[in-house]
Amino acid sequence: MERPKLYIVDHESEADTCRKEVTPKLKEAGWTDDQLLEQRPFTEGKIVVIGRVAKRKKKKIADYILRYSQNFPIAVVEAKKRYRKAADGLPQAKEYAQILGLRFAYATNGSTILEYDFGTGFEQTISQFPSPDDLWNRLYPTTPVEPAAKTLLLKPFYPVPGKETRYYQNNAVNAAIAAILNGQKRALLTLATGTGKTTIAFQVVYKLWNNRWNRRADNRRPKVLFLADRDVLVSDPYNKEFAVFGESRCLVSENGPVTSREIYFSTYQSLAEDSARTGQFRKFPRDFFDLIVIDECHRGSASDNSNWRAILDYFTYAVQLGLTATPLRNDTRDTYAYFGNPLYTYTLKQGIDDGFLAPYIVHRVVADVDSTGWRPQAGQRDANGLLIPDDEYHTPDFENRLSHLPRTKAVAKHLTNYMRKNGRFDKTIVFCVNQAHADDFRREFSNLNADLMRKYIDYCVRITANDGDVGKGHLSDFMDIDTTTPTVVVTSKLLSTGVDVPTCRNVVIFREISTMTEFKQIVGRGTRVREDKKKLFFTIVDYTGTATRKFADPDFDGEPPLITEEKMNAEGQTVAGSEQVVSVQPPTDDDDGLIAPGLGTAPGSGREQYRIEDGQARIVAETIHVMDEQGRLRTVEYRRETVRHELTTMFPSADELRSHWSNETQRAELLNALDRHGITLDELVNLTNLPDADPFDLLCFVAYDRKPLTRRQRADLLRQNKPDLFGQYGKKAAEILDMILEKYVDFGLNELQPNVINVEPIARKGTPLEIVRHFGGVDALRIALQNLQTQLYVA
What we know:
By secondary structure, the chain is an alpha/beta fold. It has 28 helices and 27 strands. Strands 16, 17, 19, 20, 21, 22, 23, 24, 26 and 27 form a ten-stranded mixed sheet that branches. A seven-stranded parallel sheet has the order 11-12-10-13-14-9-15, with helices on both faces. Strands 1-4-5-6-7-8 form a six-stranded mixed sheet. α5 (167-181) packs across α6 and α20 runs antiparallel to α23 (695-704). The longest helix has 18 residues, at 405-422. The protein is flat, with a radius of gyration of 32 Å.
């Protein structure tokens, strides 16, 4: 006689282990309730986009984050159930510690405790958890922190209701404060656009100001200068984050400095000097400021040949803290040479992986003149009568050497159709070559959307350097998350950096972008997430190929994007065609100056600019591309690749998938898991264009390249191979089962449920009670349907 199998079920959960074993041991080591953050999520959960539907993955949650003080985390602890090995939790503990920037990682099952020290690279089993002071002294073993500095470093941040500082902001603030207290005169923080650099700057200034730090250590509040290169980068922090300083803050006046305040705000331009005026900065004593915070410091402030550099050189007594979103590259070398290596870095890729930044789709669009180039006819003159030199003009030439209005009209028409399809009131920034180009585009786009312009006069506006106070008013409304208009803002360079538009859903590139620095700034216009406004991702619509080339750059650290490209006719309608990547010429520098149509010269070239107003241009291609994990660009159907990756990760073989799919409970769990990854059955049908296939076959087709069966084929195979399944219940029941199977053929798996007996034509076989009796009761009917489902998927 076969011995019965013995199953051991341990009902004690991981939470029980924490409550009974781990928390008591931590408290025995001296950790208080305030120092133990239990079950603490520290990311938002990465946003995945399938098609145009965005969903979040699970948040990363640490079992324990140990903090020495309120805003000074120092270690992470991962707990496992009592019967598991402590070592099972160490990889996750190390992963979380690395993300959080913590030196110490612990894993425990309640009895065994493992420690990993990133400072020494040493892993060991320990008998008890170290105390808070033990870890602090190990963190600073050779250079103990002075008591006064330690007190200031560990002081809490300013509490902002409903806006807890994120872990990387915590790390950046602590790194800056530690460097300043250590006597460092120049410091740099590098964090991606949209990650809250202004919040970080505020918390740094608040800690120093509130605790009366200053360069002379004479117990007075510090004098701080917040410096940026654009009005909005100064007025926004002044009116928002720094408003808590009240009368202690001021904007630097052009009428002369006020010296009685403590927190000063100014643009470089307001302070700078030139041949016609003495710089405002010279009206302050050289040692007036204790700290200068330089926002967007990569934009020329540290360059040796910049007239703004004189401001920093004048205030050499002050600690100078630079903030930038741009890593070290050739075009930012001056910044890093001046400030040194960053104290802390948080990249675009990290922000997207953590779910704090929005991922994006890239829609590559090609006009015929960009694809093939444009050449004038012999003796052709432009709109102003100028003879156009015989040459072939390509993407970098348009709106520089040659203003091509038909191309602008074609792009305006395409964007209009795109927004009609995806959302006419989706906030959109269009980057044009220069102010004249921006005005051309604004006019053409507005005329194509005259129905909205009649009702909303500011539906589409231009905001450039020459638009003055009117432009500032439009920008303020555009940045407001609760306003509808302006919806489409057309610019050249003015909005490429430092503009916070959380609900921006489209970033349109209609000019060549020559540097990675500027490209990342432009991408940053859309990376902010607004869950309450259902803004979880955005689209880059690329009409010049800039995004395609920049994403292929190995120095780009963002999420591998989806890049779409499909053929369009002259009317902006999609037509069938092959997918391709269109090559374009290398980029050239662009300009934000006003070029009068047909009268100016191409920026920086000394050559005439010609203007073409007649003729036609059309959109010829829109394709799908994606970057692989090695950073290579390849033409693919991104959604299928994504689904394949997710499925084969969960189920390496079709047999493993089948074993889960055949069981109703496991199938429900599987579908929930796919749903969390943004994969739905409806999406699979759209992806494969196989509406009659069984869902299991769709999954196998996408993941394992197996030829799919239709639901009809599966039903016929079941009738042929399993006749006993129908015969065991009697003639009446067999007829009903066969009719239910036909419902599956017509409508899918959801029909294989007991309540299907209420649906025609099955209901004609009798009342629900009569139908159930044919099977021997409700439970027997349910078992029959489960058997039917199982046998459908027998190999």
